[in-house]
Design a protein that fits this description.
The protein is of the alpha/beta class. The chain contains 8 helices and 9 strands.
Length: 215
C-alpha cells in the first residue's frame, strides 16, 4: 500500500504566503490543494466548526481517491471526550466514503476511562491512536480493531490493520526524513499509512522519497 502524504488542514497562514497563488481566492484553496494531494487531516478545531452543508461541499470538491482524516485530542475529563466522540461520529457519517480514519491523540498518561471508551466506539470508527514519546499505554486493554502509532525518537513506530495516521514536525533533513519514510513503508504492508505535516517542504520531500522507494 502506498504511503500517502497529507497536510494538517489546508488553511495554514504560511501556505497562504508560500503555497497558494497570490491571486487565488480563499474559497478556492481547497480545490487547489486536492489537485496535488490525496488526503488531509482535519484539525479538531476545524471539523468541529463545520456543518453538514460545508462537509458536503468539501466532498463535492474532492476527487474519488481523496480521504479526510479527523483529529481528536484526548484532553479534559471523560464527559468532554464523550462529547467530542459524539461530534466526530456525526462528521464521519457526513463524510461517508470520503472518511479515512480518526486520529486519536492520547496524553502521556492515559486515564483509565479512555480504554472502555475506545472499545465502545471502535466498532463505529476507524481509529488510529497517536501515542507521544514516553506515553504510558496498556496495550492489552485496547480494542483489537485499531491502529497504533508511537513516537519513538525521530522515527514513529506503527502497527495495526486500520489506516494509520502519523503526524510529524517540519523535517528538512532529507536523510532523517528518508529514515522516517523507510520505517513507515517497511511496516505498512497492505495498510494505508498517512504521513501528516503542516510544512509544505516536508510533505513534498516525503512524497518524492516514497516514490523513489516505490512505496
Amino acid at each position: 500500500m502506498a504511503l500517502v502524504v497529507a497536510g494538517y488542514g489546508w488553511e495554514s497562514e504560511a501556505w497562504s504566503r508560500d503555497y497558494y497563488p497570490e491571486d487565488l481566492p480563499p474559497d478556492w484553496r481547497f480545490d487547489y490543494y486536492v489537485n496535488e494531494f490525496r488526503a488531509v487531516l482535519l484539525p479538531q478545531q476545524r471539523w468541529r466548526t463545520a456543518d453538514e452543508a460545508l462537509v458536503a461541499r468539501w466532498c463535492e470538491d474532492a476527487h474519488g481517491q481523496f480521504s479526510f482524516h479527523l483529529e481528536l485530542v484526548v484532553d479534559g475529563d471523560e464527559q468532554m471526550v464523550r462529547t467530542l466522540l459524539d461530534e466526530v461520529v456525526l462528521r464521519c457519517r457526513w463524510l461517508g466514503g470520503y472518511l479515512g480514519a480518526v486520529q486519536v491523540v492520547l496524553p502521556v498518561a492515559c486515564p483509565d476511562w479512555v480504554y472502555p471508551l475506545l472499545r465502545e466506539v471502535s466498532g463505529q470508527l476507524p481509529l488510529s491512536l497517536s501515542v507521544p514519546e514516553g506515553g504510558r499505554l496498556e496495550v492489552a486493554r485496547l480494542p483489537a480493531a485499531i491502529s497504533l502509532c508511537r513516537q519513538a525518537g525521530a522515527v514513529p513506530v506503527c502497527s495495526g490493520e486500520r489506516p494509520r495516521v502519523v503526524t510529524i514536525e517540519a523535517m528538512h533533513d532529507k536523510r532523517q526524513l528518508r529514515r522516517v519514510v523507510e520505517a513507515l513503508c517497511a511496516t505498512s504492508g497492505e495498510t494505508e499509512t498517512v504521513l501528516v505535516s503542516d510544512d509544505m517542504v516536508t510533505l513534498r520531500d516525503a512524497r518524492t522519497i516514497a516514490e523513489l522507494l516505490g512505496c
